[in-house]
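Form 7-S
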Amino acid sequence: MSYAKQMLRSYPHALITNAEELEATIDALSDCLQACIADVDADLAEPNVIEMVKCVRLCLDCVEVCTATLGVTSRQTSYDPRVVKPLLEACIATCNSCGDECERHASMHEHCRVCADACRRCEAACRKLLGTLH
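Output:
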């Protein structure tokens, strides 16, 4: 059982949305930011590092946006849709851009393929959660 699930199950009040959707999004955000961090490191180790600059920048953007979104979606007290919804939208856009760039390198670099998969999963989870919020 993931820590997100354990924490959401232990929350003393009603959640802002469906617990399964929220858990899936929190887990996808965490996985995506970890994959992007690792991909940046791997990109910098590639002999053609100059060709990887855009990938590195987009992965770093994705890490920052996923980190903020993860923090806000993990906190359920005083939910404010004016904050959560734009963060989810930003995460969807960032994961889409990062995933597109990583896919460009996926046939040459396995780490980019893995990162692209994590970005796509996160994008889908954020989109699904966004659709459940009021």
